[in-house]
Amino acid sequence: MIAELRERIENYSYLGPKGTFTEAALALAPEAAGKPWRAVNNVPEAVQDVVEGRSVGAMIAIENSIEGGVTASQDALASTPGLRIRGEYVVPIRFCLAVRPGTKLEEVTTVAAHPVAYGQCRRWLAEHLPAHSHLPASSNVASAEQLFEAGVDAAITPPTITEHLPVELIASDLQDNHTAQTRFVLVGMNQQVPEPTGRDKTSIIVELPEDRPGALLEMLEQISTRGINMTMITSRPVPDKPGNYRFVVDLDGHLHDARVADALLGIRRFCPKLIFLGSYPRVGVVLKQADLAHSDERFAAARAWLASLEAEDAQDDRASSPSV
Amino acid sequence: MIAELRERIENYSYLGPKGTFTEAALALAPEAAGKPWRAVNNVPEAVQDVVEGRSVGAMIAIENSIEGGVTASQDALASTPGLRIRGEYVVPIRFCLAVRPGTKLEEVTTVAAHPVAYGQCRRWLAEHLPAHSHLPASSNVASAEQLFEAGVDAAITPPTITEHLPVELIASDLQDNHTAQTRFVLVGMNQQVPEPTGRDKTSIIVELPEDRPGALLEMLEQISTRGINMTMITSRPVPDKPGNYRFVVDLDGHLHDARVADALLGIRRFCPKLIFLGSYPRVGVVLKQADLAHSDERFAAARAWLASLEAEDAQDDRASSPSV
Amino acid sequence: MIAELRERIENYSYLGPKGTFTEAALALAPEAAGKPWRAVNNVPEAVQDVVEGRSVGAMIAIENSIEGGVTASQDALASTPGLRIRGEYVVPIRFCLAVRPGTKLEEVTTVAAHPVAYGQCRRWLAEHLPAHSHLPASSNVASAEQLFEAGVDAAITPPTITEHLPVELIASDLQDNHTAQTRFVLVGMNQQVPEPTGRDKTSIIVELPEDRPGALLEMLEQISTRGINMTMITSRPVPDKPGNYRFVVDLDGHLHDARVADALLGIRRFCPKLIFLGSYPRVGVVLKQADLAHSDERFAAARAWLASLEAEDAQDDRASSPSV
Amino acid sequence: MIAELRERIENYSYLGPKGTFTEAALALAPEAAGKPWRAVNNVPEAVQDVVEGRSVGAMIAIENSIEGGVTASQDALASTPGLRIRGEYVVPIRFCLAVRPGTKLEEVTTVAAHPVAYGQCRRWLAEHLPAHSHLPASSNVASAEQLFEAGVDAAITPPTITEHLPVELIASDLQDNHTAQTRFVLVGMNQQVPEPTGRDKTSIIVELPEDRPGALLEMLEQISTRGINMTMITSRPVPDKPGNYRFVVDLDGHLHDARVADALLGIRRFCPKLIFLGSYPRVGVVLKQADLAHSDERFAAARAWLASLEAEDAQDDRASSPSV
Predict the structure, then answer these.
(1) Are C139 and C62 in contact (CB under 8 A)?
(2) At C159, phi and psi to the nearest 5?
(3) Which PANTHER family match (chains A, B, C, D) (predicted)?
(4) Which of C277, C299, C266, C310 is nearest to C81 (CA)?
(5) From the list C1, C264, C324, which residue is nearest A2 (CB)?
(6) Which of A35, A58, C160, D231 is a plausible cystine mate for A10, CB 3.0–4.6 Å?
(7) Is it true that D1-92+180-190 and D96-171 share their CATH fold?
(8) A45 touches chain B (CB under 8 A)
(9) Element (H, E) at C261
């Protein structure tokens, strides 16, 4: 019944309201195009939508988020059985100054902004609006909505705000850091791993066994001895277990690559608390090709060799063939 | 002149206003007790105070912050030459509901809260104040200040708010996650490394050379072959260098421990972009003792042995002593 | 036909003549008991007997031999396709002084001895027969045969000589080194790997790929990451390839132990010149138990976990069962 | 007194008699040219000459010897305190057929030969002298001396025999293996390490601590993390300690190379039974250059960096200089 229901459900959840960076990330996901989107209040709510079948996918921030939620995302991935990453999406962090159409920069005295966004644009504000006052907003979109309330002249918002509200952008790239970007992942409960595309990554979470000194290095060796490149690693203290760590790790390659499957087997053996978060196409170019020595062909050749070690009868058959 | 000025400066900067978790962390630092504190707007501003000599120290969040700034802190540590961590402080994340004295919970209709704090208390709010409306605040302290404006009945604040404002707490532990805590570090420009206490940690940032496959494992082996325990590792993309990573790493031990100094030498040799952030007392117990094989005594014994390999003349002198 | 012939052939070859340490080793092999034994002149001849079907097994020295042949044995194992070690046997190196019955030590003036054996007993000879003269013999048995020629009073021989010749031993343990022993292996062409006994070792020869720096360490990590203990390693220059090495390696464990098979797969992938020499019961106690983390059970559990990662339909079936 | 005596002693000991491969190796050592040479009976005797001051050097076989002694050499190096390798010398193993001048091959019926040499030439003998009989000799030189006794027509000897005896060589390259060679080392008690030549190797013997699982890999990592190439490794059971091993290891590089000294320090710390056997010029070309990352310059730069971490006062001095 739930499975049937799930098939009919097509919602995607994201940290709302409309106009957030998270929504911009969701707009990059082809599978969400044309489907209903649910704006929710925070990451746990988005994940819960997926777990309880209200949505088939949730877009959550996993790295460098301006809208918060990275820690919540990591903890949700570590503690929600069955959750899988379906794809990753990267959104540059850019802020604009939005006004009611016609307002000029010199007329601005009060700026509505989410406190975190406000903190990211201080340098620009100090230079261009040294005398402004700040009105806090609950989100990067709510700030623009406040333009239509009394006493607000400008709002700090993402560039996409003009798709949602009748506002005008009179300045852009207000943020201090011009290369910042947030990485998001789209998560679902569907366990079918997508086919390899040739430029995939695999995400795992490993909680190291506490009784095993050197376990981190042992874990990393399981990865490196298969010639696999690691693109991210973050340690996180395990809640309620002082001194224990789990590691969120991204690997180059796909579960269907023999070297990746073999590395997961190697980690799983000494480290039963291994969570497979998914294999999915990575954003950006793959910088390092896997060594030929760790190709699927080599795995197959090695297995064939191992099998041949005991193929005694076959060999004896050849030896005793009529032609001898 | 600057040095003299610095001696007279005793300010400590922190993310204000008074009443933030960052201020609570600063209150834990013995060296800041009784000195003037400067509340600033964000992490880069706090760090800049130190760099430019306005303060001798800045308290900044380095892990799991509710007030933002972790990424900014890591980037400031990576890009500010000479910055040193002087100590670490851990503050539990706890939120209370503050009201004007006499207000009862059932009278509350509007709640002022920093959007991130608000997001952390949704479960409690849904249960106890299902019908409230949210007024965003620019900080966890500004929310309480709004109690004295029209239309606000309650504010979400840290428990310390009562030290700063004449408010009453009518509920506590509102946060969804009851074990959350933020780790802060106190940074300064003073290069003198504090004496070892026996329970120290050492923080470094390593930017791996891009032309060296397996460099991460090589770096970690430099640590593990000296028997050093790693307590945190986080990869961060290097701004403007796609595919390059720097790693923020915490090690058990002090720069004055021979094994730690030797590991830094080992990393520095193949990885010139190594930043030493400091050795300082760690919070909490040390869970793993360093192996005897990596003790200072062993380092000294090995060096004496190496020196003896060429002490030919000394041996011949003994051999040709009068008694022979 | 060859196969049929082989079944009827029961010979065992060894470095003769009767009475050598190699024959003593062959006497330890249960499968050779009661079968015809062929004394041959050297290790290559013994191996050739097996390759060409004249014998089912050959006993050859592999470590510390007093009778020569270790290098020849290693080279034969490396260059003879299909050769397999069936078992190992350790014989202590002990020399006696044999005489014609009735001869007394003080009557001995000429000692027949194989030059290598003679070199091992110089201390005893200098003490007990300071004035003797040495007559070289072609083997440790030929020396005793010379007792029945004119001019030889005594012979240096293994203790087993009395089983072959009517001689008397008037002194024993003549050898300078009282703990020396030779390790032998029994080799054959039978590819069927014997069943594990719980105290097995596995021998391999690995020729490292020349284009891969760090290949030796990579090879050893394939062994160590599976928790396998290595009991012997010897590098040997590859004939005609200056600067290339092959390594003769003994591992604790059996090919049927999942961790050993997996390690061989790992080595084989980057190092195609891997020769499996056999899994066979080891002599002596096993000193280190394999870690539980590398047990067959863990390998099976890890594989089951890997398989479950894509068992989506099975899980959905459960989810959509009638009871829901 | 001993030191003075030593200065006057110039003897070099070798496994005699004149004409052995060991003597041929000694002829390659420039420092032995023109000095008196002592022919001794075996490796321990040669080493004892050095220990007790009768010789300044002893040439002993260390790999692949046709004249025996490799095991004895390794054990002497492991158990003789103060012994140092001064140089290595490689001699190809070639055997000739020597006769009294005028004898023709077809006249040969009896061949004198050391049994080991005889074993190495069986193929040639089977082809060219199928009906000969073998008379054992005590060395590869004694065989030729027997030509002047009744009943011996030919002798198997090294090519250099004509320098010592009035014999004629009527066939050469009799040995089955045409690429065989023996590696010798010249050992002494002089602890002064010779200056680096740029193509040096360093030999050590390591007895692993028994209580430390994974000690072999840990030892090898100390070598590999400094970018050092290992050119030989051989495990040897420790006499009287079942299950314990020592490893004879050759490294590319010289004790005066910072990376080699640092690797020895690293091994020495966890493995006190480390014997330094010497740094000396290697035979043959160096195939792999050490990585720049492990150059002396990098070691120096890293140490300077480490020192600078605490050079607080120096920096403050600069900061407070009059010009500021």
Answers:
(1) no
(2) -65, -25
(3) PREPHENATE DEHYDRATASE P PROTEIN, PREPHENATE DEHYDRATASE-RELATED
(4) C277
(5) C324
(6) A35
(7) yes
(8) yes
(9) helix C258-270
Question: Is the CB of residue A249 less than 8 Å from the CB of residue A260?
Answer: no
Chain B residues within an 8 Å CB radius of D305? 268, 274
* pLDDT for the residue numbered B119: 82
- The tens digit of pLDDT for each residue in A249-278 reads 999 999 999 999 999 999 998 888 899 999
pLDDT band (50, 70, 90) for residue D315: very low
Question: Could you give the CA distance from residue D318 to residue D322 in angstroms, rounded to a whole number?
Answer: 9
Which residues of chain D does C68 touch, with a Cβ-Cβ cutoff of 8 Å?
Answer: 68, 115-116, 119
Least Cα distance to B267 among B302, B225, B211 occurs for: B225
Q: Which CATH superfamily is domain D193-297 in?
A: ACT domain (3.30.70.260)
Two structure tokens written together for D24 = 């041929």
Lowest mean pLDDT of B104-113, B262-271, D224-233, name the range. D224-233
- The residue written with tokens 């700034």 in the block is B69
CB B100 within 8 A of CB B155: no
The number of CA neighbours under 13 Å toward the Cβ of D23 is 21
Cross-strand bridge partners of residue A222: none
Of A101-115, A218-232, B283-297, C142-156, the least confident: B283-297
pLDDT of C4 higher than 70:
no
Return the amino acid letter for B50.
V
**A68 vs B116, B216, B243: nearest CB:** B116
Tokens of C224: 């160590």
CA neighbor of D78 nearest in space, from D198, D249, D228 = D249
SS3 D155: strand
Output Rg (C-alpha) for chain B, integer angstroms: 25
Reported CATH class of domain D1-92+180-190: alpha beta
CATH entry 3.10.20.740 includes domain C96-171? no
> Å from C239 to nearest chain D CA?
7
Q: With 90 as the cut, is the pLDDT of residue D280 above it?
A: yes
Please say whether the beta carbons of B120 and B95 come within 8 A.
yes
User: At CA B183, angle to CA B181 and CA B187, rounded to 5?
Assistant: 160
Looking at chain D from residue 205 to 244, which residues have their Cβ under 8 Å from any Cβ of chain C? 213-214, 216-217, 220-221, 224, 230-235, 239-240, 242-243
Which of these CATH numbers, 1.20.1530.20, 3.40.50.300, 3.30.70.260, 3.30.1330.10, describes C193-309?
3.30.70.260
Residue C224 amino acid letter = S
Rounded Cα–Cα distance for residues B265 and B274 (Å)? 10
Considering the domain B193-315 in this protein, what is its CATH number? Answer: 3.30.70.260
Domain spanning A193-304: which superfamily?
ACT domain (3.30.70.260)
Residue A36 predicted with pLDDT over 50: yes
Half-sphere exposure of residue D75, counting CA atoms within 13 Å on the CB side? 16
CATH topology classification for A9-93+180-190: D-Maltodextrin-Binding Protein; domain 2 (3.40.190)
Alpha helix positions (H), C115-207: 115-120, 122-128, 142-145
The one-letter amino acid code at A2 reads I
Tell how far CA A98 is from the center of its chain: 29
- Token match 């008991």: residue? C33
The whole-angstrom separation of Cα C16 and Cα A81 is 68
Q: Which residue in the block uniquely carries the two structure tokens 């220990």?
A: D51
- Which DSSP symbol is given to D258? H
Contact of A192 with chain C, judged by CB distance below 8 Å, is answered with: yes
What stretches of chain B show up as alpha helix (H) in DSSP? Answer: 2-8, 21-26, 43-51, 70-79, 115-120, 122-128, 142-145, 215-224, 258-270, 296-308, 312-319
In CATH, which superfamily holds the domain spanning C1-93+180-192? Answer: Periplasmic binding protein-like II (3.40.190.10)
What is the number of CB-based contacts under 8 A between chain C and chain D? 99
As given in the structure block, the two tokens for residue B255 are 């720069």
